[in-house]
Amino acid sequence: MKTDELIELLARGAGPAPRAVVARRLAAPALGGLGLAAMLAAGIGLLPMELLASSGMLVKQAYAAALAAAAGLWLARIVRPAAPEGVQRAAVIAVFAAMLLAGAMLLMAVPDEQRSMVWMGRSWRSCPWLVALLSLPALALLLTALREFEPLQPRRAGLAAGLLAGALGMGGYALHCPEQSPTFVAIWYTAGVLLIAALGAALGPRLLRR
Amino acid sequence: MGDNAESPQAFEAALAALWRRGRDGDEAAYAESLRLLARRLRGWLMRRLGDRPDDVEDLLQETLLALHLQRGTWLAEVPVTAWAHAIVRHKLVDLWRRHGRTDALHDPVEALDELAHAAPADPRPAQRDLHKLMDRLPEKQRRAIALTKLQGLSVAEAAGESGDSEANIKVLVHRGLKRLAELVQAEREQAAQRAATR
Question: CB 3.0-4.6 Å disulfide test: which of A6, A49, A191, A193 passes with A128?
Fold first, then answer.
């Protein structure tokens, strides 16, 4: 087939370019991942009602939502060839920074003898691993959806997908986790997110490239 | 076809105007923008595939297919030239990787000046025949593409002919072109393997 013939073929009946391709491709996997994280959290034990409605829960969900939004927007830029993504990447870092700052300030505000309880809580050993575990379905769904784009930067795409999956996993895990301290969340939930982000970055080049 | 005098900025301006019209549904403008891109990218590839001139037209066709399939990823603030460039560069690096060349491209940020050179007038023909590859598509996809793109039927007419819904026709065409791109890639990988074991 001559190249001119191919061009004619591609253009004929092509119609307008598809809109919002990234959002349409990633919305279902993200929601599905969140749902599965919530189900897994319920599986290991849902919190009683008064803790589900606490201010601690609000902080956790706000952090998760902010990170999910920032990571999602960054991922949407990464999969667009030649698109600038500095602003979006900075927003992700800003979300982490804000949470760490809030956690640090809270830690400073409590008397010395309460500090270790505030930042270690009771479940610091298991928390990051459980956050990462609950993020796995989201990561699997997102990486599968991303194959459609064949991103030019597969490692970075995997990393951002991992951050998004981690945010969704955090949101689910919060439904099980009884810890109330934002400092705890800032350290151990973040650690879980970074674990799954590292996994995403490692899998990106393998799964997102032919 | 010599347009050596055109600056990269003028080229981008002309291309972007056509590309936007194509994005909004003007198929003639879309075809013209693909033709402009094809000439530029062919020159770009010829300068880098001096040792494998027979691969130029095939890689160009593969790139055009990718550009079409990824139309939706273009963002208004990105120059179309840069967007298309990122895709062709990715394809070239992939080709090199499969043929054992491990050094990366040394020009990660393409200077726009580079694109001011026009392509030579006489490209070598493609080695691969996409018609033959299209015959290997699943029947429903092949038929949807044949009806809408070879016979020129509208989506509605094609739907009537085949008994599928209009939405389904569009999905079949898209999947068919994606499958075509995958077949092209698979063929290229096999060719690379044969060359390596020779």
Answer: A191
d(CA A25, CA A7) in angstroms, rounded, equals 26
Of B27, B72, B82, the CB nearest to A82: B82
Q: From the CB of residue A130, how many other CB atoms can be counted at a distance below 10 Å?
A: 21
pLDDT in tens, B102-136: 545 555 444 444 544 555 556 678 878 888 899 99
Enter the pTM of the model. 0.88
Cβ separation B25–A82 shorter than 8 A = no
A86 shares contact with chain B (CB less than 8 Å): no
Rounded to two decimals, the ipTM of the complex is 0.87
Closest residue in B to A19 (Cα) is B72
Query: Mind listing the pLDDT tens digit for each residue in A115-158?
Result: 888 888 889 999 999 999 999 999 999 999 999 888 999 999 99
User: Which of residues 84 through 143 in chain B touch A, CB cutoff 8 A?
Assistant: 85-87, 90, 94, 123, 125-126, 129-131
pLDDT tens by residue, A20-39 = 999 999 999 999 999 999 99
Tokens found for residue B153: 């039927």
Q: Rounded distance, CA B26 to CA B85, Å?
A: 23
Residue A149, chain B, CB below 8 Å: the answer is yes
Query: Rounded distance, CA B107 to CA B114, Å?
Result: 11
Counting beta carbons within 10 angstroms of the beta carbon of residue A205, is it exposed (0 to 12), middle (13 to 18) or buried (19 or more)? middle
Q: Which residue of B has its CA nearest to A11?
A: B31
* Distance separating alpha carbons of residues A7 and B165, to the nearest angstrom: 26
d(CA B61, CA B87): 12
Side chain identity, residue B53: P
Does A13 contact B155 at a Cβ distance shorter than 8 Å?
Answer: yes
Report chain A residues whose CB lies below 8 A from the CB of B34.
Answer: 7, 10-11
Q: Which residue of A has its CA nearest to B148?
A: A13
Buried-exposed string B49-75: b where 16+ CB fall within 10 A, e elsewhere: beeeeebbbbbbbbbbbbbbbbbbbbe
